[in-house]
Amino acid sequence: MSSLRIVLGVGRTPSGHRGTGRRRAAAALAAVVCASVLAGCGDSGSNESKGGPEKSNDRGPITLASGKDTTGTVQGQLDRWNKQHPDEKVTLVELPESADQQRQQFIQNAQTKSDAYTVLNLDPIWVAEFAANQWIDELPAKEFPLDKMIPAVVKTGNYYGKQYGIPFNTNAGLLFYRTDLLDKIGAKPPTTWAEMKQDCEKVRKLPEGKGIGCYAGQFDKYEGLTVNFSEAVASAGGNVVDAKGKATVDTEAAKKGLQFLVDGFKDGTIPKQAATYQEEDGRRAFQAGKLLFHRQWPYQWTLAGAKDGSSKVAGKFGVATLPGLAGPGRSSLGGLDLAISKFAKNKATALDFIKFFSNEENARTNLKVTSAAPPYAALYDDPALRKQFPYLATLKDSLATATPRPVVVKYGDATAAIQESTSAALSGSKPVDAALADMQRNLSAAIAEK
Amino acid sequence: MSTLLLTRSARRGATGGRRGATWARRLGIAAVVAYCLAPFYWMLVSSLRRPADQFSNAPLPAPVSFDNYMSAFDPHNGFGRALVNSLIVAGITTAVTLVVGIFAGYALARLHFRGKTLILTLIIAASMFPPIILVVPLLRLFTDIAWINTYQAMIIPSMSFALPLAVWNLTAFFRQMPTELEKAAQVDGCTPAQAFRKVMLPLAAPGVFTTAILVFILSWNEFLIAVSVVNEPQKMTANVILSLFTGAYKYDQPFGTQMAAGVVVTLPLVVAVLFFQRRIVDGLTAGGLK
Amino acid sequence: MSVITPTPGRTARPSRPARTSRRAGTGGLAAALLSPTLLVLGLVIGYPVVAALRLSFQVSSEGIDPSTGFVSTTTHYGFGNYAAVFADERLLRAWWNTTSFTLASVTLEVLIGVLMALVMHRAFRGRAFVRAAILVPWAIPTAISGILWKWIFNSQGVANALLDTQVLWSSDGFHAWLSVVVADTWKTAPFVALLVLAGLQIIPGELYEAARVDGASAWRSFWRITLPLVRPALVVAVLFRLLDVLRMFDLPYILVGPRKPSVETLSMAAFHEMNNLRFGSASAYAVVLFVYVAVVALAFVKLFGADLLGRGTRSEP
């Protein structure tokens, strides 16, 4: 929501309490990011770790900074912890709902080295930035059951081979499709883009399929566009950033991925309005019966299936993994990771709390109550859960091949570069080749040192 | 113009109303009201829809539902307490800003001293910097002096955002006041302070009252600082609580609840202004001058 | 409204400030009266501005340590941030958006605001209701009104339904620009109206009476009496609208979104830099904006509001 609010680092002030000499020395050393921005360099505990995270033994009350706890599930889990640990109580600090605002609050606290937040519930795209700037601590990976979690999901908390975030939940895209219409033409859910287009043409010839929009995803100029572009590239066999951290959108695969989206807008496979779609706009269109195929997160399952009249497609849709160029496509990963603020107190408590908070039992409750996808692989095969969430099997397949969004320290610049060029190409104001050339240049600049 | 100014004539009755409003004027009034209220009407209608038909374009909510208001005032949100906090912060900000602003405005309009232009320029320059740049230094300052989670950490910045407008506006008003009145009061034995309070202030009432409304609304709507300097729910203002509203699920923007909360935040303000307008403006001018 | 009747000793025109006989001590009194204002502004605005100014000259270059992945920063002082800002085509675009928003919105707001004030000033039945109605748009928090307009301008929203169009308002381009102007004008015309109304309220009614006796038309009264006397209030209203629109940020950000070339303002550019942790160039953008606002505001005051600057030498016609 609202007003985007800010983070402005303004430097140490002339009236700062440290002496000028020290300040100059600090600036020269410049070991810590934004040394100049933060009030003083050296910092309290010299937590610079070399080889393995530093162990803290400090215990006491801590906070969990997270988006709003809509269902009260989090508070229930905190209450249980607090009962067992009366001297190490965890207080929930609810942050504004928008992801941007949450990040701004996190960064403001890092800027002022505030200890107001102990445990952060962080979008994985920011893990690299926070780790590289040393705003969050490395965590002892061995103390967590990471081997029981889906490997791609565990990787979202990893930076330079060290674990900074422990998956709290995850997410991947699915292809929602209209079973009633596909049945009429005798087709199975498509695994390739070409099949999808063919199905569409056939459905449009049916009386009930007249004028239906074929396909939509999230194409407004925001983070969703980065997700959808990355998926298109990955589904064509490429990647946005390779394993060595180099931008690779000047490849043939990237071109084919973007071309799919551009052609979709051009030939009407993707309806024009989809250029302003975020998740909810697309969901409303799908539920109103205006879309045959829809790339969406699993949350749509329950809503589109509601039988109270709010959805025209209840009982008439199914899910599949995303289609790709030559075979099944690959999704981008969403979710949340838990991390510990470098500037916090009582880090031993924080570590224990993350172990508790991210355990399998809590993940199961979260899935049941909030339908948040768990990081634990076994839960996807649990018969009771599968019954409650029939899409779990498909989601597991989607997660198995999912790719993290580009791991870039300057993720904000990277995603801006991707959105800039993609939206220019989609609107037709730039040819695909030129758009990708621009993107390659800007991405490389965002990745390289500044 | 000078002839007009010098001519004195009989006292007038109610302004212009006697001739009766022409149709053209009535139409103009209707247009102005429609212009102001149409989007607000949409907000009201949206807030009264069922969450399920939140995005309907029907001109009337059918069926009417108070679900959005119920969820805005869900005890878990603490919206009621947040409204009280907003009232405290905006109320104190308005009161203190007015007092401080009246001092400054009076000095700038009535006293002779060097550097007046410079001071007026400095004061207005405070309104020229993008506010987003101010947050982190302020946060650092308030952390150092342990003002985090206090009312004053919201009040003082709010004052500073409102003061330039208050001072400039009041200065403009005091400059328009005839000096003769003040002098006459002093001849009658009033001290300068009494002359100011009993003669100048009532005359400037429309300006003071307008300034009060503007300052109150400015600080009532302040978000940037409030969201940064407070993290205890007990001290959050309505705007901050509003930003915490969530939908039923992750991607759902709680549009209906936000519209309901918007109505709740807006209406009391309008009612209060109406109430005070009659009491203060009409009361003061009538009592002070008749 | 209430009727202001002539009081003994009062002349009907605003007069120049008194040359009081109590010259001694005015300086001290002025200092005492002004110090609270200056103190608050110095603390909350002055100190951060100085900090930002300093930061804008601090040029950082970052590198990533190849073994740990940690960012390392080196800084020096210089004009590098400004050089980068001025070399970026984004500056010109943001400057133009900022300027065009200001010209369009402020012009519309003054026209509509003055009209509203004149309507509110007249005595008629239901005037209280009209006054309340006019206040509504301004009393709605920007965040909320941004969301409201975003929905109105949604591709499936009520604007398209009423106009029978399929415009993608929030995508980009002229439509997006227009939607911001419409929303901003709606929200802030009441601000102008309130200030102008207050100015109208202190105009003594006998002036109009006199004008009528002299046979002046309503139109002539407006130009010869209303406008000159309401000018100080109008100048303050326009001045503060200028300051606000030039720094506009929330509305285009919520309504259209960040990094849309047709609506990105200078404030939004500064925010984008800051949000990506380039505090030096964010501060440089902020300083550029500050200088621009200062030039526009001071030029405006010089042109239209010299009498507000308090030289006390205004001559009466």
UniProtKB/TrEMBL annotation, chain A:
Keyword field contains Signal: yes
Classification via Pfam families: SBP_bac_1
Region (Disordered): 1-22, 43-74
InterPro entries per the UniProt record, alphabetical: SBP (IPR006059)
Swiss-Prot/TrEMBL keywords: Signal, Transport
Similarity annotation: Belongs to the bacterial solute-binding protein 1 family.
This protein's name: ABC transporter substrate-binding protein
Organism: Streptomyces bluensis
Source species taxonomy: Bacteria, Bacillati, Actinomycetota, Actinomycetes, Kitasatosporales
TrEMBL record, chain C:
Disordered: annotated segments: 1-24
Record Gene3D superfamilies: MetI-like (1.10.3720.10)
Low complexity bias (residue ranges): 1-18
PROSITE patterns associated with the record: ABC_TM1 (PS50928)
Positions of transmembrane segments: 29-50, 101-120, 132-153, 173-200, 221-243, 282-304
Predominant subcellular localization, coarse grouping: membrane
Keywords attached to this entry: Membrane, Transmembrane, Transmembrane helix, Transport
Pfam family, one: BPD_transp_1
PANTHER family listed in its UniProt record: GLUCOSE IMPORT SYSTEM PERMEASE PROTEIN GLCT, TREHALOSE TRANSPORT SYSTEM PERMEASE PROTEIN SUGA
Protein name: Carbohydrate ABC transporter permease
The organism's taxonomic lineage, starting at the top: Bacteria, Bacillati, Actinomycetota, Actinomycetes, Kitasatosporales
